[in-house]
Amino acid sequence: MDEFIKVLNHYPNGTKLIIEWKDGLRIKGLLDTIYETGDGLKLEDEDYDEYFACALKILSIENNPSGKVLSENTLLEVSNKINQVKFF
After folding, report:
1. What burial class does residue 21 get, using C-beta atoms within 10 Å of its C-beta: 0-12 exposed, 13-18 middle, 19+ buried?
2. In sequence order, what are the beta bridge partners of 34?
């Protein structure tokens, strides 16, 4: 578990958070859950990687300078492994 997720893991589900990315994207949301996931490759692939992520329910989009397509009341996967926004 990386340091980012370790910090989030101290908060209970339902905690309000504000997360800001290096590109200036800033989202206010609710911590939904923390879970282990993979990069989408097959387990036998030598580049396969597992990591922890959190699901964040978007309450509001505070700043979106790059114009990423985001919607309030949707779940967003957040981790230090993801360079782009990933919805589910």
Report:
1. middle
2. 54
